[in-house]
Design goal:
By secondary structure, the chain is mainly alpha-helical. The chain has one domain. The chain has 9 helices and no strands.
């Protein structure tokens, strides 16, 4: 029994170290690259949910594309976790990746977030990896998305 109790603090410390090491702001020291997580989320940490269902109604969802983008984002949440957001919401509101934009209402008001989110969904369906999608976002390929036609 004593041996088990001795290992609990060590296990908790190990989880803390792994979580801290994967935190977007620390693992992405390049100041000119928006925050993102280089790896998928850890299975031991629960992420805030992406807005869905009845949350996709009200004054913030005036256009069909806003609902559609959130629905698609919810399907690729772990990919969005590994992508930066070029609107720099990491600096302005403390987001840690593109996924953060869809955990809040930010994605409804920002066309950069919305285009990147839909682009990530499309590219994932085409078999692209988060690393490939991240490179395409850096090249601003998401700018060709027409939200009104989605």
């Amino acid at each position: 029994m004593k041996n088990t109790l001795m290992y609990r603090p060590l296990a908790a410390l190990a989880v803390l170290v792994v979580t801290a090491a994967s935190y977007a702001q620390w693992s992405n020291p390049a100041d000119d690259v928006p925050a993102y997580h280089p790896n998928p989320p850890l299975k031991v940490s629960a992420l805030p949910p992406i807005k869905s269902g009845k949350e996709l109604t009200g004054p913030n969802f005036r256009y069909p594309w806003q609902v559609h983008v959130y629905q698609k984002a919810a399907k690729v949440g772990n990919v969005l976790y590994q992508l930066p957001c070029n609107c720099r919401c990491d600096r302005s509101v403390g987001h840690t990746s593109l996924r953060s934009c869809f955990e809040t209402l930010h994605g409804t008001a920002c066309d950069i977030c919305a285009k990147e989110g839909f682009f990530a969904y499309q590219q994932t369906k085409l078999g692209r990896t988060p690393v490939q999608i991240r490179a395409a976002i850096a090249r601003h390929e998401y700018e060709s998305i027409d939200l009104e036609k989605q």
